[in-house]
Amino acid sequence: MICLDPDTLAALRHKNVSSSLIGEMAPEILGGTLVSLDGSAHRRARDGIKEAFLPKGLTAAGIGDLFAPIIRARVQAWRERGGVSILPETGDLMLKLTFYLMGIPPQDLPVWHRKYRQLLQLIVAPPVDLPGTPLRRGRAARDWIDAQSRQFIRDARARSTRTGLINDMVSAFDCSEDALSDDVLVANVRLLLLAGHETTASTMAWMVIELARQPDLWHALVEEARHAGTVPTQHEHLAQFPVAEALFRETLRLHPASSLVPRRTTRELHLGGRHLPAGTRLGIPLLHFSTSSLLHDAPDQFRIERWLGRVEPVGPLDMLQFGTGPHVCIGYHLVWLELVQFAVALALTMQKTGVKPQLLNDAEKGRRFFPTAQPSMKVRIGFS
Ligand code: HEM
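That is the input. Now the predicted structure with protoporphyrin IX containing FE docked in place:
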């Protein structure tokens, strides 16, 4: 695989650069999902669900109101425990939020949790197709999740009382001009479970690590949160939280959760000063865009000031960690809301008893960069 230079961002928008490689890298779980499709097939699959993820769709579904108490309860539990291994905790919180987002009833969460963990095994399972192997267990979990999603879709059509994004996606999907089979929707529900979990959990964990490393940043966040006094629940509230938003954006810039996006050329191309024959595998390095001095002053320094007091709106270059072009992250507005909610809830909860996050071991040790970039599972944060 060739890793292209930072100035080859255009590859993500190029009509002769395909996303099918993603499906081939993880065929058992990502094959047929919209992230691995190109052109009109991709557009049709994406159009079926994208409205639900825009601020209007998220507000209509009451997602911010649903998330706020769950996040507050979790950070309160952290305060009572006095310290946590941060990534396992944010991973667990994100999984819960993702399941709630889908409208999975609370009593079903333990079994979904178990099936989801088994599903993840499909990413690394050796190709041994025998009873009891990770491959068999992973496939069984995938089939179980798909069957549940199919039932959710049927329930949504029957206008049962189930709530959540699946309802909205089904309505949008059924209203779309081109009739698509339910298989597309089922595959994309599975993609949503996978795409939003580790990426957001990792960013959340880095946010806490950065707050623990920088007392001034923590104090600025606490001041802002106390002034507002409440966790925001809609995008229109977010303007009251410039520090929390800058924390989210700067954390993601320095610690992009998706460090490398795979693609393949479909025709002979000249990109990034290289000649690339048709069929060349590409790795588009989002990590390098984040740390490029062509795009940012002092790129290695964590500076929320880059985001504060800006007059120009956030543009594609400011959110490169979510990709760009037709495959730009569908979850961007959701992540923006939930990570600001998280930062504000953390500050409000901890300041009540005057405690703040403290880094208890080396956050650089054991960090990984692929398939998602994450701090080590062993990084501990104390609250004292
Ligand atoms: C900090 C959190 C996140 C980051 C950094 C992130 C990053 C990305 C990136 C870089 C892509 C582009 C992939 C490509 O071009 O091939 C992407 C696509 C996608 N993301 Fe996210 N993501 C995050 C959270 C979420 C969430 C919460 C969801 C939904 C619940 C989500 C759903 C998707 C979907 C469905 C796609 C595929 C879009 C398409 O192919 O048209 N992501 N994300």
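Residues 12, 19, 22, 34-35, 46, 191-192, 195-196, 199-200, 203, 257-258, 261, 286, 321-323, 327, 329-331, 334-335 surround protoporphyrin IX containing FE (CB under 6 Å).
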